[in-house]
Specification:
Blueprint lengths: L1 H4 L4 H4 L4 H4 L4 H4 L4 H4 L4 H9 L1
Length: 51
Amino acid sequence: PVEQEQPKPVEEEKPKPIEEEKPKPVEQEQPKPVEEEKPKPVQEEKREPME
């Protein structure tokens, strides 16, 4: 039984799919363009009451 003596399932022993284990595309998952989503014209709003 040499087959049982030497462990051949080394592929299952060490997980190679590290790319799938850690989600790298986090930039695409969450929309960062919040600056373009909400316009913050605070300068114009503050100018009206000041005048």
